Amino acid sequence: MSRPVYLDYAATTPVDPRVAAAMAQCLTAEGDFGNPASASHEYGEAAAARVAKARAQVAAAVGAEPQDVVWTSGATEANNLAIFGVAEYYREQGRHIVTARTEHKAVLDPCRELERRGWRVTYLVPDAGGILRPEQIAAALQPDTVLVSIMHVNNEIGVIQDIAALGAICAAHGAWLHVDAAQSVGKCAVAFAEFGVDLMSLSAHKVYGPKGVGALLLSGRGRAEKVHLRALQFGGGQERGMRAGTVATHQVVGMGLAFEMAAPAAPEESQRIAGLREQLWQGLAGLGGVFRNGDPRHSVPHVLNVSFADVEGESLLAAIRGQLAVSTGSACTSALQEPSYVLRALGRDDQLSESSLRFGLGRFSSETDIETAVAVVGGAVTRLRRVGGR
Ligand SMILES: *Cc1c(COP(=O)(O)O)cnc(C)c1O
Q1: For 122-161, what is each residue's pLDDT tens digit?
Q2: Is the pLDDT of residue 97 over 90?
Q3: Euclidean distance between CA atoms 14 and 33, whole angstroms
Q4: Which residues of the chain form CATH 3.90.1150.10?
Q5: From the CB of 207, is ligand 1 less than 6 Å away?
Q6: Which residue lies with its CA nearest to atom 5 of ligand 1?
């Protein structure tokens, strides 16, 4: 019994074997298992050297400086640290935040919590293709806006926002800019300093690194003052006091290598994946009543999100289960069977928002996988439409 074809790379990726090998070297007695904060012996020093190297690798992959990196348990924690950390530190300067309706829950839920605590949040609505116009952001800024949080690449529809344009607007206004870039690395150019971003969230497991590790990048964008945070956890003072807790050497070593490996292959890999996505789209479009979500002119090639008319989302997922591993919308919300809030924000009706599939393509995707996906989804949609009498 073979496993289903995996086309859910936007949810997570397998760990690259070289990454797994490097991680293993930091675990056992023969390896660099020491506590990187133990400065009194060579075990600690060896681990600290590994962590320093990983910091440099992550920074280099995204156009940042090693000292900008604060390790976290993933992009969720990085988003929480950025949003609560900035809000609390600057609470006397202002309590207004700007974000978008199409953000990941790891940004929206902290914002909702801040609303309960007395902050005001503006949720911008993108155009039908999922794109925010820089003028929209500019118009939403108020005298007491302290933070703008906008994602780089959307995890459900793959659209890319013009972060450099937002960086300039936020800098001119004096609001800090936080960017959730969990889906960007290895898929499109990420230039932390050049984009003028103040805080950026990263994750390892979307880029062939391990789950459970990420980073928050912090910079001062050359202003008189560097961005400050109120820490969320207190303890050993690691990560310059911004994230207490023993640094997980094996995890950050895995993230560092995964990030280093992501960048050089990116252009050719993206071209190959764009070809596969086109093959997939052409195959599905032939069914009729198929709608592409997200503006393909401003998207990474690794995601194809489509809605199917006259089909129930839950039945569609059930029909392809066992043959094809994909998701409806984001993995983090698909446990609740409700129409995708991202697609609703683009103006899709309930039926089309609920009957969507997200195909995530990656390093191990092949033309054969795409042929299988087209056949499986095509068969299921045709069958369900016939049963439904449509
Ligand atoms: C996956 C993802 C997250 C969550 O990252 P974790 O490392 O799993 O916590 C946040 N934002 C976006 C856009 C993501 O794709």
Answers
A1: 999 999 999 999 999 999 999 999 999 999 999 999 999 9
A2: yes
A3: 24
A4: 5-12+266-387
A5: no
A6: 75
Residue 363, token pair as written in the block: 């390093």
Report the pLDDT value the prediction gives residue 386, as an integer from 0 to 100.
93
User: What pLDDT score was predicted for residue 330?
Assistant: 44
76 lines ligand 1 (CB under 6 A): yes
Q: What is the pTM of this model?
A: 0.96
Residue located via tokens 């199409």: 102
Closest CA to 165 of 59, 298, 346: 298
Mutating to test ligand 1, I would choose from 76, 81, 188, 251 the residue with most ligand atoms within 8 A of its C-beta, which is 76
Ligand 1 centroid – CA 105 distance (Å): 9
Q: What is the mean pLDDT of residues 7-20?
A: 97
Q: What residue ranges of the chain are covered by domains with CATH 3.40.640.10?
A: 17-262
Q: Report the catalytic residues.
A: 332
Tell me the average pLDDT across 160-165: 96
Q: Does 106 sit in the ligand 1 pocket, CB within 6 Å?
A: yes
In short, whether 75's Cβ falls inside 6 Å of ligand 1 is: yes
Residue 177 CA to ligand 1 center (angstroms) comes to 18
Which atom belonging to ligand 1 lies closest to the Cα atom of 183?
A: 15
Per-residue pLDDT at 337 exceeds 80: no
Secondary structure element (H or E) that encloses residue 305, with its range = strand 303-308
Query: Which CATH class, in words, describes the domain spanning 17-262?
Result: alpha beta
Q: For the segment 51-88, what is each residue's pLDDT rounded down to a tens digit?
A: 999 999 999 999 999 999 999 999 999 999 999 999 99
Using CA atoms, how far apart are residues 256 and 369, in angstroms rounded to an integer?
A: 29
CATH of the domain spanning 5-12+266-387, picked from 3.40.630.30, 3.40.50.300, 3.90.1150.10, 3.40.190.10: 3.90.1150.10
Atom of ligand 1 nearest to the CA of 76: 9
The DSSP-derived string for 132-187 is PPHHHHHHH--TTEEEEE--SB-TTT-BB--HHHHHHHHHHHT-EEEEE-TTTTTT
